[in-house]
Amino acid sequence: MTFTQTELDELKQAYASGALRVTHADKTVEYGSEIDLLRRIRMVEGELRSSTGQSAPTVSFASFSRG
Fold first, then answer.
1. What is the Cα–Cα distance from 17 to 52, expressed in whole angstroms?
2. What is the mean pLDDT of residues 26-33?
């Protein structure tokens, strides 16, 4: 499935406002919870990243030892 930045922006706007219903073009989707909407946002972000050749952000933690 192909997503656009506009779709992602609409999902993020709905999440920020607390809405669970998102309309894009002629489709309306109502998510069951904020977590469902956030999962969709993360999935669309991943799809957009992969379609543009970007890699997922990485997180690393430093470790130290006292000798």
1. 28
2. 95
